[in-house]
Amino acid sequence: MLWRLLRTYLRPYWAQLATVTVLQLAATIATLYLPSLNGDIIDRGVARHDTDYILVHGAIMLAVSAAQIACSLIGVFIGTRVAMAYGRDLREGVFHHVGKLSAREVGKIGAPSLITRTTNDVQQVQMLVMMCTTMFIVAPIMCIGGIIMAVREDLALSKLLLVCIPALAASMGVIIGRMIPRFRAMQPKIDTVNRVLREQITGMRVVRAFVREPREEARFDKANGELTGLALDVGKLQALMFPTVMLVFNASNIAVQWFGSHRVDEGSLEIGALTAYMSYLLQILVAVMMSTFLTIIIPRAAVCAERIVEVLDMEPAIAPPRAPIRPRELTGVVEFRGVEYKYPGASAPVLADLSFVAKPGEVTAIIGSTGAGKTTLLELIPRLSDPTAGTVLVDGLDVRERDLEELWSRIGVVPQRSYLFSGTIASNLQFGNPAATEEQMWAALEIAQGKDFVEAMPQKLESPIAQGGTNVSGGQRQRLAIARALLREPGVFLFDDSFSALDLATEARLRNALKPRTANATVIVVAQRVASIRDAQQIIVLDGGKIVGKGTHDQLVATCPTYAEIVTSQTEEQEAA
Q: pLDDT tens digits for 532-545?
């Protein structure tokens, strides 16, 4: 999984990675060459009091050091830019893929988890790329090169490497082995914290209304405490790494000085060679330590990569057609032919054998009890879901054969739960039509009965809107959502119980204002109140996912017991009120 993500999204940056590799290789070779120069200066220049030799070789050391620093800085700069670009591309890929998923797939993973995967998980993989460009090339070359140079300085003393390197690797392996399962458990804990926090912020009014603050605080404390405890366990193990490395390094340094001093005393090793050997030992152990840092990041990045690939591999239930067909004529006619819809794993369909035609210039109303399938029926028209049997046609063409963008451009939807985005009233209205002028926005607001309250705001169209529209009332949200759909000027309007938060007088004015604007469009309205649909040219009554009545208000009162019952119950409620 991890290799697949790296291979796919790093492909555009092979040239930059090759440049980083060359620069890091040059910097590493220069680093390995410096201790040897230093040892030669001590053995030949200092020992023989040769000032010219010291100056010449010292200048060479300075030049090599400058080249090493320049190559390292440029390599790190390019590598960091590649890592940031990789993270950007990966986040963009995940975001666009999530945008193609239906509500069913999004609900399967969960919005909090998708947010974590798009942000935190991508960041972990991005961190691995950055560490690889700065350490992955340097560490093995420095380790192998350091061993070769150390053996070149003194073969007998190099036997210590057979002890210190395995000791360091084994101690790091034990620590990392205990960290990996904790890394695997950490990402779901982050998901849980995000989910709980999202629920509490979104449902803050409900929490306060039922005085559930202590319970919600305890729920968050539990999720936060579990994540904190796991992070502390990982932190404690990470804290052990540096002291362990220093312990092995200092013990190795003492051993080199102990055995090396005896060889110097015997005359078989020069002081400069011993100094160079100690520098190479430091480089070897630093390379091993750098490798351990990578081994820390790789397991966590691998877990994150699995979670990201799980999203990227999820096939959208609503797949665009391979060869989309454009309708010959934009008639605006919506037709259902024997449509059935069943949720995955359900024993019975929520909609069964639906057949009707909604024509332009007419209002087709859908009414029925809660759970009758009214909203599901509307979702089939813009292809937010696909029927499990039968056909849905718009403009005389099966919606599954049309390009999704082209189909959506023909439909204006006002959902049951009107959602506004953070920004301004103008930016939300222009969501339906980015090219809408100020005059068009005011005209749409006037039809939607929202002009008065927008004019009353200090900044009018530029008045700020909070995320979800929480700083305006439910009725105002619905009217802004209706105005947004009107600006789209579609051929088909879908109103999913979009007048429920309006009083009867405002609703009546709104319906009267809509008539001239939607005279040439197909209008399908889902409603709970009979008063909202009694003037519709066609009323469809749903019961248990099936059509039990179809006709005008007067016809259904006389022929459909289910509709008559709904009318009677609402009339009695109004009289009682």
A: 788 888 888 888 88
